[in-house]
Amino acid sequence: MAERIGIFVCECGPNIKEAMDLDEVVTFVQGLENVVLAKAFGLLCAVEGQALIAKDIKEHDLTRIVIAACSPKEHEKTFKQCLEKAGLNPFLLQIANIREQCAWVVEDKALATDKAKAIIRAAVRRVAHHEPLEVKEIECQPHALVVGAGIAGISAALTLAQKHRKVYLVEKLPCIGGKVARYEDVFPSLECASCILDPILDEVLHNEHIEILTLTEVQEVLGFYGNFLVKVNQKARFVDTGTCIGCGACLEACPVKVKNEYNEGLDERKAIYIPYAGALPNVAAIDKKHCLRWQQEACSACREACPFGSITYEDTDQVRQLRVGAIVLATGFDLFDPARAPQYGYGKIKDVYTSLEFERLVNSTGPTEGKIVLRNGQVPEKIALVHCVGSRSSKFHEHCSTVCCMYLLKFAHQVNSQLPGASMTGFYSDLCLPGKKAQGFFNKISQEGHMEWMHMKDPDSIEITQVDEKTLIRFTDVTGSPREVTADMVVLAPAMEGAKDAGAMAQIFDISQGGAEGFFAEENSQVAPVSTAMEGIFIAGCAQGPKDIQSSVAQGQAAAGRILSRLVPGEKLALEPVTAEVDADLCCGCKLCVGLCSYKAITCDNLKNNVAINKVLCRGCGVCAAACPSGAIKAHHFTDTEVSEEIKGLVRHG
Amino acid sequence: MTEKPKIALYWCSSCGGCEESVVDLAEDLLTVAAAVDIVFWPVALDFKYKDVVALKDGEITATLINGAIRTDEQEHMAKILRKKSRLLFAHGSCAHLGGVVGLANFYEREDLLNRLYQEVPTINNPQAILPQPETIESGKNLQLPDFHDTVKALDQVVEVDYTIPGCPPTPELIKEAVMMVLEDRLPPRGSVLAEKKALCDTCPRRDSKPEPLRIKEFKRVYEAEWDPTKCFLAEGIICLGPATRGGCNARCINANMPCRGCFGPTDNVRDQGAKSSSFVASIIDVTDKEALEKIVDSIPDPGGLFYRYGLASSILKRKMTRDGS
Amino acid sequence: MVDAVTTSFEPKIIGFLCNWCSYEGADAAGRARKVYPANLRVVRVMCSGRVDPQFILEAFKEGADGVMILGCHPGDCHYKEGNLQTLKRYHVLKRVLSRFGIEEDRLRLDWISAGEGDKFVQVVSEMTERMRQLGPLCR
User: Fold this and answer.
1) What is the CATH number of the domain that holds C44?
2) A5-133 has which CATH code?
3) Could you report the predicted ipTM of this complex, rounded to two decimals?
4) What would the pLDDT profile of B149-171 be if each residue is shown by its tens digit?
């Protein structure tokens, strides 16, 4: 049965009407094959225009529609809805762009008329081959997995939990709160970190929708958006979380001492430990790597000391399969290791510290109970604060780590509060003070005094050495002159990098890392900062790039928002129909398309010897269809036939 | 008395390989020959042109024409055999797609004749004589069929009912085609009588293909002794298997040579050469412009490589000539 | 060897424009009312990576004197790396086209972002002028 094509040409007021001979155009297109109706109208996007189209569809039994008007980018959606209301599948429409790409850019009326005729003729030929595509729906899980219980992950989890979504919050450490839980104060308000954080952590711990899995890591991810199957491994804690109250009796009894990574190695902990005072959950854990029992020695000191019988040596790792609809990766950051840059003397000169080490010194739950002291226990008199260690560097990382200038100012304040007699020197090459509060913070800290600023020519020019008992800092200042300053204590601000295991995470989740710094690549840095190329996998916080607490919270909430809006309980996931599809009768299993898909939407079925395209993951770019050597892949709505007909319409005879 | 079905075989611009393939039916040839009445087969039997003319329209049950159409005579014979036959089979790559003969379409007629009759090192033609359609020799008018500008596939000259693909087709495929006629079990008209899917589906090396397949360097067959169990593409050798219809039992692969595309494209593909260039480009794992130019330059003759059999029936069919020349 | 081209020859040019960048760029030129030669006829695709070499050959066969593929700048492809496939295919096809006697300039690949209405106009104008110089493609 022949198609009955209706063509509606929009005058667009004077815009199209006066740029060409519209009567000639309408007469011409009326005579094209399969066209039963062609007419012009003042403004098709207006209510009357749409009513006209709907009426004519019914009256003339139209099966396909061509609308010659403005760019499809303007009103394609509107006209698709118009078709739908009139009972016609919205994909049986082709828009002919005779305004932005014809009337508005061709001066000569005759030429514009000719061009419009060709454009409409192409649309007519193409639309005859359109398929009535259907929007399919699939079941999906409304629940989510959040990897990383730092401030970004927690923000995401709480936002999701507010809408009663079940959230699995997976954390590789035995405690939650991430880096922020180990800071003393936060900038710019200088509020105490635990005052802000503890109520939030408390909420997370007691939220009925959030299941926290500490000592847990993701091992495998299968499936796709709406239907992920995630395998996680929860390592044995060897302490019963139900009965342990964190009294610390076991810590006293344990004979093993190891470097305490929670205090950045500045002190020691036991093989059974609570990461730091106030760590939540307030439950001990046994470090299997150092505990004597796993070194083939008999020891039950902790069990004997425990008044509640909470020690459970029989614990084993537990593997679980979690079914979720979406995943948020909030795995945070690690600092650049200054030992990689010998010029800073880190690791060689004993009182050169990283910023995280200083955070622990200043923290009341830290190795010195909050006292700023040197390794020998004495109070420092001259403190150097060194900016851009590995950031903005030609040798290491190009990027600025965003927060260092601010936290070094915070440190200055903390020094001034605790050690009013101490003097400080800030070594900087540029100051990063963006946004509402930063400049004001700088001004306030400057007013506190005791700070001298050394403007370096470039961050890589600094050199820190030990001379007698003093630490000597040599650098080239901004005028090009060599300078020297001494200090008792040096605090370095190392660059922020992605977490050390980010690479392994990227492999498991099949997402990309933008560059060598280890951060995960966002889908689009302008308009899609928390999603990735893998549909359904979101990133938030410092895992995406260096940022402060406020921005990490924002991204965590943003990721949660994205999930809440698209995965709705009881609703199915609507699938975009303009996707590619493999004809299993033609697919020879050459598998050449598999590696071409940026979204990993094509998988092999080795038993059937062909490939299949996942409708959820496919974004409809058509790259696979163009590459398929046997023409077995059909790019719906951009099929070979449709494009071929369009080409013929555009260039055949005049 | 039921008459045996009449069969004819003819060759146009061809190498004789398709005829050889018929002979290669060996014992089966006797079975087939016994079941049919061959009324015309210039390479093997002594029937004349006038015998064909004398037949009634449609009297021949099936005619197999191999070779491409390049001269007046070939075109004429194709047309007359079409008239006299109920079913016409394009037999072999040349009839199907233009074949290797079709590669002449990358040149102008004049260039070909000049090259052959004047420029080649082995020619001795001081008077620069070129073949003519008509010459007077000792008072007699001698005629040669005119040599066309452009090589054509059989279906560009007459309606073709079925195609037996290959350069040459395997004896099995030829036998099967004839048996389909004899047993009245032909598929829909227009079908190519081989596999529907491309060669990879039935290739013995299929399982060795890595996924994803990415090439940093193209290799030539002469460069090494290739592992007979590994996919050629995975080794960097351009194999047109993915773009070529299967049904040949992977005979080239089994002889440790990559597929050259003689069975032509699968049903959905309009231009095998274009699709071949597309997939070969897609597996290149190089993005730096200079490196990309280098790796593409390493393919000695992409046009000839991708259009080895299908040039005459490709989208463009032949080299574009300049206005007026 | 090239015949003198009469001033009345107006080439037909087919352009494959990707939905996210170059098509948007063309629309931007339109919104700014920038006039450019009317010879270009546009086929909209979602990604320049959809452009099958068969389309290009078909365009030449059906009557195009020149063909353009305009995609997103490398690194900006809406679909991550679709334009990279286009780039590779273009380089291979270029060499194939030369055997067909189709001059290199008749197929042009360029990158236009959504905001580059001006660049779009420039590229189309250049292409049109070059096609006028080359004359019609003989079929």
Assistant:
1) 3.40.50
2) 3.40.50
3) 0.95
4) 999 999 999 999 999 999 999 99
